[in-house]
Write a structure and sequence with these properties.
CATH topology of the largest domain: Rossmann fold
CATH architecture of the largest domain: 3-Layer(aba) Sandwich
Number of domains: 2
Number of strands: 10
Number of helices: 13
Bound molecules: guanosine-5'-diphosphate, magnesium ion
Radius of gyration: 21 Å
CATH class of the largest domain: Alpha Beta
Order of helices and strands: EEHHHHHHEHEHEHEHEHEHEEH
Helix content: 40-55%
Strand content: 5-15%
CATH superfamily of the largest domain: P-loop containing nucleotide triphosphate hydrolases
Strand order of the largest sheet: 5-4-6-3-7-8-9-10
Length: about 325
């Protein structure tokens, strides 16, 4: 158990709040997984230690550190604006108050995105459509998600909607065989919307709880990809007007600000309801989580911090902030 700073409701005081990671067997603490991201932020500690006063130099250096950690201009600007406001209002009086204030602002930025994806039993099957460019970790995340739902005692079915590459269909099939999960697939170059339509029909008939549909991340053109995804949504709605219940974008944290561009493009084309950020373990670019929160204001459902099933974790804002900027030791 540990604590982080947050602004009180009136915004005139910093208070601490406890955050508690809910560890699963065999799981490393998130802190251990986000070491490289933390490395970037730890530059802040040095700055504050050397600072004898809160002056423009210190604030400039903080701003640079946040930008270097990949928070992006918009999120960094927001945090700096709030920091300036805090200095004006007396919330931040001495150098020692600065890091708690930064931590509180980081938390304020991502806290609204902490919205766990609940499988609604009244939607049977609960349909999750996975979208994202090639290589971000869609198929891997599907496997991890399926594992999670199986462990919760739910019936899971997968739809091999990435028909652009034969290997993609095989990857999902192999996973399904190993885990005894049905996978609806057709051959390479089959119509993706037709595969997913069949899967939804079959899932309904069999009383499946959760259907997760994979999709292509690359087609002949970007327009082609986006119109295929739109078509998939349309054909699903013919069977269940509420499906898909979740359109989840997967982005790779290692691609930095590109992830943000992808989020904007996919949202415009298909309307996202949630985001999963993968590969936060292998990258120093964890700041992208804050950039996405600032720009998209969408739920961040999960974060991927490794290749094993337990490495897909529900997004917890307090734990995340603590992992990238721990102040309580
Ligand atoms: N280190 C790490 N690797 C990941 C994570 N998620 C996915 N990967 C790897 O990323 C690569 C591409 O994943 P894949 O699921 O095939 O991507 P897709 O093209 O979007 O379906 C694979 O080697 C995965 O093992 C993660 O959270 N951490
Ligand atoms: Mg894939």
């Amino acid at each position: 158990m540990f604590s982080i700073f947050r602004r009180n409701k009136a915004g005139n005081k910093l208070e601490t709040t406890e955050v508690r990671e809910k560890p699963v067997d065999g799981q490393d603490p998130l802190e251990a997984r986000l070491e490289r991201t933390r490395g970037h932020m730890s530059g802040l500690f040095g700055l504050i230690k050397q600072a004898s006063a809160i002056d423009d130099d210190l604030l400039d250096d903080i701003e640079t550190t946040l930008l270097t950690a990949d928070l992006g201009v918009a999120a960094t600007t927001r945090i700096m604006d709030r920091l300036h406001a805090g200095i004006k209002s007396g919330l931040v009086e001495q150098p020692g108050d600065v890091l708690p204030a930064v931590q509180a602002e980081l938390y304020a930025l991502i806290e609204p995105c902490e919205q766990f994806l609940a499988v609604e039993p009244e939607n049977k099957p609960f349909v999750i459509l996975m979208v994202g460019v090639n290589g971000v970790g869609k198929t891997t995340t599907i496997g991890k998600l399926a594992r999670r739902y199986l462990d919760d005692g739910l019936n899971v079915m997968l739809a091999a909607g990435d028909t652009f590459r034969a290997a993609a269909v095989q990857q999902l099939k192999t996973w399904g065989e190993r885990n005894d999960v049905p996978v609806v697939a057709q051959g390479q170059d089959a119509d993706s919307a037709a595969v997913i339509f069949d899967a939804l029909q079959s899932a309904r008939a069999k009383g499946v709880d959760v259907l997760i549909a994979d999709t292509a991340g690359r087609l002949h053109t970007q327009d082609h990809l986006m119109s295929e995804l739109a078509k998939i949504k349309r054909v699903m709605a013919k069977i269940d007007p509420d499906a898909p219940h979740e359109v989840m974008l997967v982005v790779d944290a290692g691609t930095g600000q590109n992830a943000l561009v992808q989020a904007q493009q996919f949202d415009q084309a298909v309307g996202l309801t949630g985001i999963t950020v993968t590969k936060l373990d292998g990258t120093a670019r964890g700041g992208i989580v804050f950039a996405i929160a600032e720009a998209m204001q969408l739920p961040i459902r999960f974060i991927g911090v490794g290749e094993r099933a337990v490495d897909l974790r529900p997004f917890d804002a307090g734990t995340f902030v603590h992992a990238v900027l721990p102040l309580d030791q």
